[in-house]
Amino acid sequence: MFFLTHGTLVLIYIVLIIYTCNFFTNAIEHLGFKLKLGNSATGSILAVIGTSLPETVIPLVAIFGAVLLKTNIDVGENVALGAIIGSPFMLNTFALFVLGFFVFVFYIFKKRKKTDLSLDYKNVLRDCKYFLFAYIPAILSTFLNSFILKYVVVFYLIALYFIFVHRTIIKSKESYTEQKPDKLMILKILPFFGEATLFLVLLQIFLSLVSLIVFSHLFVNEIEIFSKIINVSPLILSLVITPFATELPECVNSVIWVKSSKDDLAVANILGGTIFQATIIVAMGILFTNWKLDFSIMINALLVILCVFLLILNTFLNKKVKLFSLIFCGLFYFLYLIYLIY
After folding, report:
1. Which of 72, 81, 105, 257 gives 262 a disulfide partner, CB atoms 3.0 to 4.6 angstroms apart?
2. What is the pTM assigned to this prediction?
């Protein structure tokens, strides 16, 4: 009865997250349309900042919650480090695998005309390079003993993210072509407003973000209940299980967009998320934890670096994003699961 109750709750929260993501992506498309941003900027910046809130909150709560409540600070830091490192790993491996899987499914069921993704492959190469330029120095900073040098790395990461945002917006505006989005969903609830004003768009974004945070939090709680039953360590929980829950909005957003053949939005949402995680979130980790990465975390980091490098190589050689390269990313996720189990 216990498993049935919590299993049912997990399914309910997943359904709620999916519907909320649909609400969110609709509003984000309208915001990008009003700001005259291209799909790459809309997906990699606007969508990412919103859906990254759950995984941003978790490490902060883990660290400062342990301090304020005077609980075991080591456990808090383990949870924070796992969440910070686990999120970019989850996006670059499992999320891209899920995206590729659903591209294939939609192709089989005639929802798509081809399996290869329709987008500028150079944007994918650029985003992957930004990730590596951020992530590799961040991981290597674990060997720095000087606080000053670590602060230099933090400054570098934050500056790199804002450079990425600035250049993405500039390039997006240069290549902007007007694509009117579907009707704003909140107008179905409030039809008397008549048109999608900026206020309504922002209201829909706010409501969907609040709902995403609440449902993601409840989903994480249910996952934690199951992890305690099967006696999973806090580090493994935060490296694998918690990111699975917190990155669910990005996965769902991308599946929604790829179903509508908005491949550039779908991929930009995931890769933009990895850059945000590798810069802003990692900078928080360096500032607020001891940033001493153990062997399990280093294996995790090496796998994601290898995964992204191979994605760059495959995309560069083929001059397009192949379905196989997305499916192949999932191999690194499952390899790490095997490593943790054995």
Report:
1. 257
2. 0.81
